[in-house]
Amino acid sequence: MIDFLSALLNIPVYALNAGISAIILGIVSGALGSFIVLRKMSLMGDALSHAVLPGVALSYILGINILLGASLFGLLAAILIQFITSRSNIKSDTSIGIILSSFFALGIVLITYAKSGLDLTHILFGNILAIPQSELTRSFMIMIVVIVIIILLYKELLISSFDPIVSKAYGLRTGFYHYLLMMLLSVVTVSSLSQVGIVLVIAMLVIPAATSYLWTNKLSHMIYLASAVGALSGIVGVFVSFRFNLPTSATIVLVGVSMFSISFILSPKNNFLRKGLK
Fold first, then answer.
1. Measured at the alpha carbon of residue 41, what is the angle toward residues 37 and 47, in degrees to the nearest 5?
2. Would you kindly state where each structural domain of the chain is located, as residue ranges?
3. What CATH topology corresponds to 1-265?
4. Percentage above 90 pLDDT, the chain
5. CA 146, 148, 150, 152 torsion: positive or negative?
C-alpha cells in the first residue's frame, strides 16, 4: 500500500493530465454514447468520427477553429447519409459506408496536399500523454456543455430515442434532435483526437454505453453507469499503460472491453451463465 501511494505521489505531470483527460473523455463519451447505442447508431458514430477528418485538415489549411471545421463536416456527413437513404433504394448502412470512406479519403488527400505539420498518425491514434493544458481545459468545457444539453433536453431525447413515431405524433422535431446528437458527436470526436484519435474514439463512445446497457433498462441509470465505466476505463487504462509502458489509448479501450466482457458474463439482464447451462 505504501509503495502504491508513493507511486501516486511521484506520477509526472503529463501522466496526471492524461488521467484527468481520460476521466473527462470517459464521462462525456458514456453520456453521449448512451443515446448512440439506444438509437442503434453505432455505425453512424463510426462514420462521423471518420468524416470529421477533412474538416480538421481544412481548419489547419484555412487557419480557422478546428472545432468549427470538423463539426461542420460531421453535420454535412449526417445530412448526406440521410439524403442518400431517403432519396434512393440504398440502405442506411450502405450510405454510411459510402460517406465514411469518401470523407476519410478526402481528409487524407487534404492532409497530404497541405504538407503541413499535421500528423496523420497523431490524428488517427492520438497521444493522451502529450495533451497540453489548453486542450484539457477545452475538453472539460465541452463535457460541461454536453451534460447541460442532455439535462435540459433529457425528456425530448428520451422520447425520440425510444419511440420516434410517438415523438412525431406529439409534435417533437425528431430531425432536430437527431442532428443535434450528430453535432455533439462531431464536437466530442474532435475534442478526443489528441487523446485517443479517430480510430479509437468510437470505442469510447460505444463500449461504456453497451456495458451499462447490460445492467439497466432505465436511461438515466444507463447514462450514470456508462459515464462511470468510461471514467474508470480511462483512469485504469492510463495507470496500466504508464506502469507497463503500453500504448495508452489502446490500453484504455482494452480495459473497457474487459469490463464489457465481465458484464456480458455476469449481468442478470443478459443472463449469459444461465443460457450457457441450457
1. 125
2. 1-265
3. ABC transporter involved in vitamin B12 uptake, BtuC (1.10.3470)
4. 20
5. negative
Q: Could you read off the pLDDT of 85-129 as tens digits, one per residue?
A: 888 888 888 888 888 889 889 988 887 776 655 566 666 667 777
- Ordered DSSP codes for 53-93: HHHHHHHHHHT--HHHHHHHHHHHHHHHHHHHHHTSS--HH
3-state secondary structure 222-270: HHHHHHHHHHHHHHHHHHHHHHHCCCHHHHHHHHHHHHHHHHHHHCCCC
Query: Which residue type sits at 18?
Result: A
For residues 48 and 186, give the distance between their C-alpha atoms in angstroms, rounded to a whole number: 6
Instruction: Report the amino acid identity of residue 144.
Output: I
Three cell numbers at 120? 496523420
Give yes or no for residue 163 having a pLDDT over 80.
no
